[in-house]
Amino acid sequence: MNKKKFSNYVKGFDFKELFIDLGWDNYSGRIPITADEILFEIKGVVEKRGFVIALCPALYDGEIPLSTTRKKIEHNFRKFHQEHLIIYADKAKTKQIWQFVIHEPDKPRKTREIQFSIDQDSEILFQRARGLLFTLDEEENITLVDVVARFKENFAKNTEKVTKKFYTEFKKRHNAFLDFITGIDDAIADKENKNKQWYASLMLNRLMFCYFIQKRGYLDNNIHYLQDKLKQVKSKTGKNQFYNFYRDFLLELFHKGLGQPETKRELSVELGKIPYLNGGLFDVHELERLFDKIQIKDDAFEKIFNFFDQWNWHLDTRVEASGKDINPDVIGYIFEKYINDRAAMGAYYTKEDIIKKTD
């Protein structure tokens, strides 16, 4: 099973042929499940020694059922097949959610999900599903225990590995981000450019927070909100037009949008429907007051968004299975590491510090 072939199957929503090619057996049972007073006819796809992979159809409006409904569907389906994977798909065949449960002795059951859209790279699923290959040589001796063990091995990745991998990449992206920042006068600072380092961390923290909430549709009900806004700004840049994503959009989003109650907003750009996030992260920072000519090139955000788009962002703390899942625990680790790094370096320079150094 090569990636191209796998991708064709997954993006074509041809799950039966995919798993048949991986050595699974045909299963065409249909089980009616009721959840939230809605009847779902769960369609069997394949099975292996009693481990069933099934497909849940979309709702009447063509959308995938909500998380709370999906949990109820899984709970009821479990009464028929204890070991299973349920794939949810929208009617337009643009989105999928792969849902399964890991249960271990003396531990609570954990529902896990992998979300996938057809405009994504299929790597997120390929790395997991290709490990579910069963060969003819295994056929005589394989049992349900073996199937479950292989499923856990490939789908229940340790979050610690994800955290370290993300942090390693994040540090590289953070350092690269520095090169795109101008307008922060670190000539008076030491060779470590403390002010620029601090500001890069602040910007990336803000952007990561935005990634969490946009993936839940909290930014104008658009899970690609930041990327789409960047494209809009770049489309307006041309001869005698000088638009910049950082100054013309992001600062407005942070300070006058997310950082202000809706009744107090005085906007010069269209932000759409966005929430008010009290807490200080999106307030005007001292560095922004001190250096009011800060500029960051659009290319910096294009690169960081491309990096962020390689990961799945969740606003809960579930342990995901894709090997590329980011939740608040992971970001908490990132923040803590950077706080420690900044503490070791020392705080950014204030206006008073700069005056003293200039003198």
Largest sheet: 7 strands, mixed
DSSP helix count?
13
Overall strand count: 11
Radius of gyration: 24 Å
What percent of residues adopt helix (DSSP H or I)?
40-55%
Spans where pLDDT lies below 50 across 5 or more residues: 316-322
Average pLDDT metric: 83
Structural class: alpha+beta
The proportion of strand residues reads 15-25%
Span between termini:
68 Å
Q: What is the H/E order?
A: HHEEEEHEEEHHHEHHHHEHEEHH
Shape: elongated
Q: How are the SSEs placed, and which strands pair?
A:
Elements: H1 3-11, H2 15-21, E1 25-26, E2 30-35, E3 38-48, E4 51-56, H3 67-77, E5 84-89, E6 95-102, E7 110-117, H4 123-129, H5 144-155, H6 159-178, E8 181-182, H7 194-215, H8 225-235, H9 245-258, H10 286-290, E9 295-296, H11 298-308, E10 312-313, E11 325-326, H12 328-345, H13 351-358
Parallel strand pairs: 4-5, 10-11
Antiparallel strand pairs: 1-3, 2-3, 3-4, 5-6, 6-7, 8-9
